[in-house]
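Progress note, sequence design subtask.
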């Protein structure tokens, strides 16, 4: 039987519940346990796929094509848990299912359909669904902050859940903030007491408190929190802000004995902890030997989380080369206004990530032209790949009015066009080409060199694609399709034959990178950028390869 860990948050939002869950998953996995993680989001959208990155940050895509909360990205980066559409529920998705059942008229036997028990039953079913024979621990994160009206049905459901499966099989962890008041020169425990009070009012007594704090949490304060919140002293865990990296969080949990406490409390059969690979990875983060500057030219640069997985993947690639990756965030529109030279001078690599809509397109194209003509390593992702194709068509094929039909419906040269099966699609939610699709790699190209295999699988989220009418002309002029769908119809990767490292992909490699297993394309992109920086030389696919100095 699977055991359950429920993680709630109090005092303020943005405390890092997702990271906490991911870190708990990681330390349990390193004790030989099989974990699955799940997030409940209290908003009404059925999934985040229709929300603006400004609202919500990145939309994280899973293999099965579900568009999910970015916390699932943390779960995947920290653990090897298999995540599916069942790992992210919103209030909207729960209600949609309840309402559909009510309309079918078969499920509720003529009863009045209510939040309790029908909505809470639906939530509990979503939790049970993950508790399969091959899972030792299910970790469930409740989005929002305790005290919000919206998260109440979820909290009520997890309260009931312990009655259904036995309190001894469930652990409640509450994440709170212990602020430091400069004027008083003191840490304050009162917000934590109030937040736990609010939880207890709805019937949940937390077993563990994880206290986010900027300052070390002294034993006195821990004791006070334990006493007032009715938890064991050992179960008050400090989670201090990390100096270098989020990847230090699981290590500090282990230092506080959280893995052993959880194993004991849930009577789990665990093996000894093995942190070798993780500790080595963190050491590489803390003690880099090289540095590289990468410009990310996008549209939502002010939102820290809009390209979350891209930034993480760049860090992972840096870890592989023992290199710090300094990201220069550039608003694409600025490139148009101030010129590529002013903004991109001195960077070692340029990355253009995914996106939607017209704004900033010309700036992205200009940045790509700058990288292409100066031999600066370039990595294009999804929209970034589409812009690279447009740039090449305009500059090299001299098709002045080349564009994507997303931006100019009736352009003379639609080098990027709506995919065949997108014609007639009118609904926006969940209707793009989504999730994992196979891709075959051409021999002797940069992509193939990076992956080292012939067939790969990568995740997608797009409606437009490379227009095959132009494939021959592009290839003859030097922009080759180095990765295609197995039937050869969809161009998945393009690269430049005579450039040190210029690779652009229709898919989203950033969703498959882990700090301990960096994505091969990100790794080689950073390798090429390092090479450019440290040797001043750039080597192409026929040269000695774009490998960085020995890590
Ligand atoms: N807007 C483009 C498309 O739909 C690119 C999407 C993306 O970058 N995720 O094809």
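Output:
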């Amino acid at each position: 039987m699977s055991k359950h860990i429920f993680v709630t948050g109090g005092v303020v939002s943005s405390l890092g519940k997702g990271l906490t869950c991911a870190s708990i998953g990681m330390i349990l996995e390193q004790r030989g346990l099989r974990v699955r993680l799940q997030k409940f989001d209290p908003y009404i959208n059925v999934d985040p796929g229709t929300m603006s990155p400004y609202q919500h940050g990145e939309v994280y895509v899973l293999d099965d094509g579900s568009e999910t909360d970015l916390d699932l990205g943390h779960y995947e980066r920290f653990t090897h848990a298999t995540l599916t559409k069942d790992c992210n529920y919103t209030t909207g998705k729960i209600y949609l299912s309840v309402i559909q059942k009510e309309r079918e008229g078969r499920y509720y036997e003529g009863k009045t359909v209510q939040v309790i028990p029908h909505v809470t039953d639906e939530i509990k079913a979503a939790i049970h669904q993950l508790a399969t024979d091959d899972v030792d621990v299910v970790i469930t994160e409740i989005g929002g902050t305790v005290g919000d009206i919206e998260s109440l049905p979820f909290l009520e459901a997890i309260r009931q859940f312990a009655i259904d499966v036995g309190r001894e099989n469930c652990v409640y962890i509450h994440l709170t903030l212990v602020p430091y008041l400069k004027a008083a020169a003191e840490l304050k425990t009162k917000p934590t007491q109030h937040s736990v009070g609010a939880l207890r009012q709805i019937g949940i007594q937390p077993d563990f408190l994880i206290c986010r704090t900027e300052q070390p949490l002294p034993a006195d304060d821990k004791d006070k929190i334990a006493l007032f919140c009715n938890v064991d002293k050992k179960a008050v865990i400090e989670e201090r802000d990390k100096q270098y990296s989020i990847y230090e969080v699981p290590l500090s949990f282990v230092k506080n004995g959280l893995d052993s406490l959880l194993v004991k409390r849930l009577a789990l059969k665990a093996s000894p902890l093995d942190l070798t690979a993780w500790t080595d990875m963190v050491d590489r983060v803390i003690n880099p030997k090289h540095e590289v500057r990468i410009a990310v030219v996008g549209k939502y640069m002010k939102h820290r989380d809009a390209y979350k997985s891209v930034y993480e993947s760049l860090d992972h690639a840096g870890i592989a080369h023992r290199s710090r990756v300094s990201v220069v965030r550039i608003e694409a529109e600025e490139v148009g206004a101030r010129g590529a030279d002013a903004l991109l001078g001195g960077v070692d690599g340029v990355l253009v990530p995914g996106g939607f809509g017209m704004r900033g397109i010309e700036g992205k194209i200009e940045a790509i032209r700058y990288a292409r003509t100066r031999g600066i390593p370039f990595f294009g992702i999804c929209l970034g790949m589409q812009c690279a194709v447009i740039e090449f068509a305009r500059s090299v094929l001299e098709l002045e009015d080349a564009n994507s039909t997303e931006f100019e419906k009736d352009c003379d040269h639609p080098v990027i066009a709506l995919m065949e099966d997108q014609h007639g699609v009118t609904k926006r939610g969940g209707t793009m080409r989504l999730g994992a699709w196979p891709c075959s790699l051409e021999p002797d190209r940069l992509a193939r060199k990076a992956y080292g295999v012939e067939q790969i699988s990568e995740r997608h989220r797009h409606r437009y694609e490379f227009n095959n009418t132009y494939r021959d002309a592009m290839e003859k002029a030097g922009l080759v399709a180095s990765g295609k769908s197995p039937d050869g119809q969809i161009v998945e990767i393009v690269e430049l034959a005579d450039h040190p490292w210029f690779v652009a992909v229709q898919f989203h490699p950033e969703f498959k990178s882990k700090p301990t297993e960096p994505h091969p394309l990100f790794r080689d992109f950073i390798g090429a950028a390092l090479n450019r920086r440290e040797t001043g030389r750039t080597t192409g696919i026929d040269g000695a390869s774009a490998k960085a100095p020995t890590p």
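The CA atoms of residues 149 and 264 lie 34 Å apart. Work on this subtask will continue into the next period as scheduled.
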